[in-house]
Amino acid sequence: MNKDFHYYGTYSAAILAGYTHEEALRIAGSAFFVDLCTKPILSSVGAPVEAATTMLAMEMADTGSDPISQQDVSRIWASFHFLPGDLYSERKGCGKRYMQRYHLICRPNGDLLVDTVSQVKGKDLEATGLAMHVLADTWAHQYFAGTPSRVINDTNYHFYEILPDGSERPVKFGSNPAATDDPEKGTYINSIRQSRETSVMNLGHGRAGHLPDYSFMRYKYMPAWADYEEVLKDNPSDFMHAYCQMIYALKFLKGEGGVFKKDTYDTQAVEPYRERIEEILLKRQIDACADWKEFGESLSGQEVPDFEISEYQEAYRQAPEEEKDNTPMGRFILAALSQKSMVTNRVYKSGNLLLGVTSDYKKWGTKGIKAYMKLMEAMQKGETS
């Protein structure tokens, strides 16, 4: 998903869930910041780089093939953009190395989603926004994994777009970074084919380009992990499910309901606006910001300003050391560290080492984990848990 859904779409979902304009802006800003928070951004303000939630292209290009580098990449992408759907699914006749990658395939309504949402209840709105980004991406990014893997993430010649009239046409992929996607011509940009299993070109949905992030897109392809059986991806339906589930999750985090449940959606809140939302989702455009912005403003009656990353950075940079954790960026950092540590720990406990070796912070404290001192300090202050 892109800025249109993560920022403006999340804002409108928060309004429908009963949050005020100011609260919705904080949630939406945090949800979008997940796609901006890189190590260079954090370094520029003296913040811990371990809280990075995404990577620049040049960082990806410099990623090594050694296990440590691969684990660092996978911790970021699996924790925030490709949340694993089932760490314990069974598949006959497969070796451990393959199964570790297979278990990281992103799918909605997994146990880790329950953990992601449940752990931020009672926390700051920035934690709520971060969780909404992760939730939404489980729908857009399903069938891909947040670890470099050709066997999981690669695509082949059998890749067809399903057009609005029901007809099909082959997708024309190219790898020229200077080019742009053209939905009318059916030409899209993807990552360069690499035969090496752990090449970063085989990370996430790079081989499928930005198609998973466009709400209007319907396509089918034959991934190796599905034994080359055809897999259908219906983005308009998936994005609507994500939107309704976000509203349900936001109401839960606001205090409604005792337990966050899988496969539960607030369709009632959406119903009066379903036609307008579907119109936005189905419109063949690669940037739907203007439409989502207009819809959100029609709900709240307030102007939704563009997200200014410089305001996040400056507030954090100018704050006294003891107050940095109470800035929007500081609260986001604590939420990011908590989310990454939770996902990494769950994956490690499942017997999967692709995200590295971890220990239980609540049980063992800072033992051997200096990088997470900020998270531990916040836990001791009672700012997070």
Describe this structure as you would to a colleague:
There is one protein chain. With 385 residues, this protein is mainly α. It has two domains: 3-148 and 239-381, no CATH class; 153-234, no CATH class. 46% of the residues lie in helices and 5% in strands. The chain is built from 17 helices and six strands. The strands form two sheets. Strands 2-1-5-6 form a four-stranded antiparallel beta sheet. Strands 3-4 form a two-stranded parallel ribbon. A hairpin with a 5-residue loop joins strand 1 and strand 2 (168-170). The two termini are 29 Å apart.
Please render the helix and strand layout as text:
Elements: H1 3-16, H2 21-33, H3 39-44, H4 57-61, H5 67-80, H6 96-102, H7 111-118, H8 125-140, H9 150-153, E1 159-162, E2 168-170, E3 172-174, E4 187-189, E5 218-221, E6 231-234, H10 235-254, H11 267-270, H12 274-282, H13 289-300, H14 309-318, H15 328-349, H16 361-364, H17 373-381
Parallel strand pairs: 3-4
Antiparallel strand pairs: 1-2, 1-5, 5-6
Helix pairs in contact: 1-2, 1-10, 1-13, 2-8, 5-15, 8-10, 8-15, 10-12
Q: Largest beta sheet, briefly?
A: 4 strands, antiparallel
- Shape type: globular
* H-E order: HHHHHHHHHEEEEEEHHHHHHHH
Approximately how much beta-strand content do the residues carry? 5-15%
Write a concise synopsis of the structure shown.
The chain is mostly helical.
Identify the notable features of this structure and list them briefly.
mainly alpha, 17 helices, 4-stranded antiparallel beta sheet, two-stranded parallel ribbon
